[in-house]
Design goal:
Order of helices and strands: EEHHHHEEEEEEEEEEEEEE
Radius of gyration: 26 Å
CATH topology of the largest domain: Jelly Rolls
Distance between the termini: 34 Å
Helix content: 10-25%
CATH architecture of the largest domain: Sandwich
Number of helices: 4
CATH class of the largest domain: Mainly Beta
Strand content: 25-35%
Length: 340
């Protein structure tokens, strides 16, 4: 059943059973939205904008053509501009995305020669500087040799046992992220074994940041399960050349904020690229069993000849959101509670 909500403060989208069936038909690929009348297409597009929280005015409804409405009713990229949606469709219609080069062995390689919005994420697991540009079909060849070796998420029955090549010059390649893990190895000395105090394990589906004129802190609170030594802290950055300061606080009983206690240690590092970074504390901190610690993060980034303060926004599946508050100085342990 489709749940209908107000699209704006002054209008309500009213759907008939025919409208509901049309939406299902479009989603299943059984109905061409071009065959629908303008008034029905407009209701469907407004409903999709409401569902996907597209702000009022993003699309100029009074001036949309029939073809524009049909495009918005059927696209999976609702929320993109019409220009970007058309570019994405053109890249697919023109077969400029994926090429199958040869049959024995079968080679899957991608090169998109026009600007188009990406709609999928994969792992880059290697590279080959010698893969020839001439291997791509004539007329759709990248300007030079070289490909990334990528692993997709569709299993071994897809592509080359789950892998494919991506040209260095593919114009949809964007938003790269890199992570480095230290796996648990049973036969390593105890010093190599780590417990990770973290609510989200690598919580980065996408990274962006919001900049502030005043200092703004991200923070969280953790409970120490056993007597442990804290050696490293981690932080996510969303900007180039971000200077990150992480502080560790031993919280007093009944603490109401991540800084309500004694400051144990602080570490500051600058990272040239956005990503997830591990920082080593000046010395290991021995933490008593059952104690609670607060971790605060302050990020300074260069912006137009001045310094701004960054709060990183990452999509997250965890239950605990960051705790933040903007202040001119470092957090005041006697100040108001942080905003959860």
């Amino acid at each position: 059943m489709i749940s209908l909500r107000a699209f704006s403060s002054n209008s309500v989208i009213r759907f008939s059973d025919e409208d509901k069936q049309a939406i299902v038909g479009i989603q299943m690929g059984e109905l061409d939205p071009l065959t629908l009348p303008d008034d029905q297409l407009l209701r469907i597009v407004k409903y999709r904008c409401e569902i996907f929280a597209i702000e009022d005015g993003f699309y100029d409804f009074p001036n949309l053509t029939h073809e524009d409405l049909a495009l918005l009713a059927g696209t999976a990229q609702i929320g993109w501009t019409l220009e970007d949606i058309r570019l994405d469709d053109a890249s697919r219609d023109d077969n400029r995305i994926m090429f199958f080069i040869g049959e024995d062995p079968l080679i899957w390689a991608q090169y998109c020669s026009i600007k188009a919005q990406p709609n999928h994420a994969t792992y880059i697991v290697g590279w080959d500087d010698t893969f020839p540009a001439s291997a791509f079909p004539e007329g759709h060849q990248p300007p030079a040799d070289g490909v990334w070796i990528c692993r997709n998420s569709y299993g071994e029955t897809w592509g080359m046992d789950g892998y494919f090549y991506l040209s260095y010059y593919d114009r949809t390649l964007s938003m790269p992220q890199t992570f480095e893990f230290a796996p648990y190895v049973e036969d390593q000395p105890y010093s190599w074994h780590y417990d990770v105090l973290q609510y989200d394990y690598m919580p980065a589906e996408m990274i962006s940041s919001t900049l502030f004129d005043e200092p703004v802190y991200a923070a969280n609170v953790f409970t120490v399960a056993g007597g442990e030594a804290l050696r490293h802290v981690s932080a996510m950055t969303g900007d180039l050349n971000a200077q990150v300061t992480v502080s560790v606080w031993l919280l007093k009983e009944g603490a109401s904020s991540p800084t309500d206690g004694r400051l144990l240690s602080t570490v500051t590092e600058t990272f040239p690229y956005a990503g997830y970074h591990r920082m080593t504390l000046p010395e290991s901190l021995l933490l008593p069993e059952g104690s609670r610690i607060g971790i605060t993060v302050l990020q300074r980034v260069p912006a137009g000849g001045t310094v701004k303060y960054a709060l990183v926004n990452t999509s997250s599946q965890g239950e605990n959101a960051p705790l933040i508050r903007a202040q001119k100085e470092r957090p005041d342990t006697n100040g108001p509670d942080y905003i959860r």
